Amino acid sequence: MYKVRIDKFEGPFDLLVYLLENARMDIYDIKVGEITEQYIEYLNEMDELNVEVSSEFIVLAAVLIRLKSYMLLPRVSDTGEIMFEEDPRTELAGRLSEYVRIKNIASMLKECEEENLSVYEKPAEDMSKYIDDPDEILMATEEQMVSAFILFLTKKKKVEEVTKRYQGVRSERESVESRVKYMVQKLDAKFKEGRSKIPFNELLPDDADRYDVTISFMSLLSMIQQQACDAEQEEKFGAITVTRKEIQDVQ
Predict the structure, then answer these.
(1) Is residue 243 within 8 Å of 232, Cβ to Cβ?
(2) Between the CA of residue 179 and those of 140, 175, 185, 192, what are the distances in Å?
(3) Could you count the other beta carbons within 10 Å of the beta carbon of residue 120?
(4) Does residue 237 contact residue 200 with C-beta atoms inside 8 Å?
(5) SS3 of the chain: helix, strand, coil, percent, to 5
(6) Within its chain, how far is the Cα of 36 from the centroid?
């Protein structure tokens, strides 16, 4: 006996499960008469197509016909009483349930196989030279060791000097709060002179660099938020004119 694949069915249980799913029947509540007719009809169609049917399909057909007869004919005892036996479909339902479980597992394993086939691994490298002799001895003379140590100290000193100089420059930078006070004092002085509108560049310190312009502009925004002044710009990228509202304390 050999396994025959007919259409998409690999065996009799595969065909039976298909018929049950197509008829929307529960495995544990099979309408034996209906499903038996569909099963035999399918076998007859394969016979008409000259498709050799495996004996497995025929054996299952016989089992279904036997179940159908049990379901149609009541069992009567020798005394003439009707006997209530265990549902004859139980064994078939159990075998079908086990078949579906194994089929699902096989499908999952097939998907895992296809996924793993698309994974490429790096070829193993020869690590014996690191494992067999992991200790590496540094061969150097006393003069070489002293020279390397002096070079290390020299580089370390240079890094410390650069770091110290950088931190010193950054510490001298002005905060927004102090620049606000500086700009308010300038605005108040111009206001007392009778000038109500002052160009923004007149509020910058002498020899202002990019940092000064940036911190001054941020300070101006803070002053506008505190309603200490207003600012106007008639065109894009044009000059900014600052107007002092009134002399008051600005935090």
Answers:
(1) yes
(2) 59, 6, 10, 20
(3) 6
(4) no
(5) 60, 5, 35
(6) 49
HSE (side-chain half, CA atoms, 13 Å) at 211: 7
In a 13 Å sphere around the CA of 38, the CA atoms on its Cβ side amount to: 17
The pTM of the full predicted model, rounded to 2 decimals, is 0.36
Contact between residue 223 and residue 176 where contact means Cβ atoms under 8 Å apart: no
**What three-state secondary structure class fits 238?**
coil
**3-class SS at 82?**
strand
| Inter-residue contact 179 to 219 (CB < 8 Å) | yes
**CATH assignment of 176-244?**
1.10.10.580
b/e code 174-188 from CB counts within 10 Å (16+ = b):
eeeeebbebbbebbb
- Indicate the DSSP class of residue 176: H
Which amino acid is it at 100? V
Domain ranges of the chain: 12-114, 176-244
**Mean pLDDT per 10-residue interval, the chain, length 251 residues:** 49 79 74 81 74 71 78 62 64 82 88 84 76 68 87 89 63 76 86 82 84 88 87 86 68 47
Query: How far, in Å, CA of 117 to CA of 110, rounded?
Result: 11
φ and ψ at 197, to 5 degrees?
Answer: -120, 130
